[in-house]
Write a structure and sequence with these properties.
Elements (H helix, E strand, L loop, with lengths): L1 H19 L6 H15 L3 H6 L7 H4 L5 H11 L5 H4 L2 H7 L1 H4 L3 E3 L5 H11 L1 E5 L9 E5 L6 H10 L4 E4 L5 H6 L6 E9 L2 E12 L13 E5 L11 E3 L3 E3 L16
Antiparallel strand pairs: 1-4, 2-3, 2-4, 5-6, 6-7, 8-9
């Protein structure tokens, strides 16, 4: 599409301008090197800039896991027949209910009486859409903000929310960093020969002063966690190239912070 092409050209030009501040290569050289790196190593223009490919020899470039390579690896390791479960929240929760140990409810299967009793008992519900891959929607709905449970249910249906869970209180440390957003830590694991290895781990901290449950729906910081020590050893990134060593709202020092 023409809109995608314009977006990519704008992104390439932005990346080239940022790179030229760090090296003396010409724009033409960088452009064609970006193109070759995309063909050969599967890195896009942002990854080319972030990984500093412009200063790396070929044998080192080949050691980087780009988004394209990551997707290819994921497709190779993942059994296609399991995608129907992995991409569907309802099926995923049912399949792994013993592992997740979560109290959840399928809104479509509840009678209005059951839903009313649930909202009056729990007061606050985390309601989610069914999609686990791609665009997803999560809202925290409190019965006190609606005229009745019926209006809460109507809001959930209008937003295509099908799963309801009791509201989860986040870790005290994460809450002190930013209580307005649900901050997260993700762990990437690899199962091989009945042994689970931790490949990598990263955190996301929301940086908005507005109560939103899903950290992906707000502006946030992302940073790697050292898998051996559990410590954030480097600055966190926001957007394209903004780096932070402390949280902009709470001023909590993030570099050298140990994650629980």
């Amino acid at each position: 599409r023409s809109s995608d092409l314009k977006k990519n050209i704008k992104g390439i030009n932005r990346s080239i301008k940022l790179i030229k501040k760090k090296c003396d290569k010409s724009s033409v050289t960088l452009f064609f090197d970006m193109w070759w790196s995309y063909i050969r190593y599967g890195v896009d223009y942002d990854e080319y800039r972030i990984f500093e490919f412009y200063s790396l020899p070929g044998f080192k470039r080949d050691t980087y896991m780009s988004k394209c390579r990551h997707q290819n690896l994921e497709n190779y390791l993942c059994d296609v027949k399991h995608l129907a479960i992995l991409n569907n929240r309802t099926k995923f929760y049912i399949k792994f209910k013993d592992v997740l140990n979560r109290e959840y409810y399928n809104i479509k299967e509840l009678s209005f009486k059951e839903f009313e009793e649930l909202t009056l008992k729990k007061k606050e519900l985390v309601c989610r859409s069914n999609n686990l891959k791609g665009e997803s929607n999560t809202l925290v709905l409190n019965v006190k903000n609606f005229r009745s449970p019926a209006f809460l249910l109507d809001n959930a249906k209008k937003n295509n929310l099908v799963i309801a869970e009791a509201s989860i209180k986040q870790n005290k440390l994460f809450d002190s960093i930013n209580p307005y957003n649900m901050n997260t830590v993700s762990v990437v694991t690899l199962l091989s020969s009945n042994k689970v290895d931790i490949v990598s781990s990263y955190v996301k901290f929301g940086i908005e002063e507005e109560y939103k449950y899903d950290v992906n729906s707000v502006k946030h910081l992302t940073g790697l966690v050292d898998v051996k020590s559990g410590i954030i050893k480097h600055k966190l990134v926001c957007g394209e190239d903004e780096l932070y060593s402390e949280h902009p709202i709470s001023k909590v020092k993030l570099v050298n912070l140990e994650i629980p």
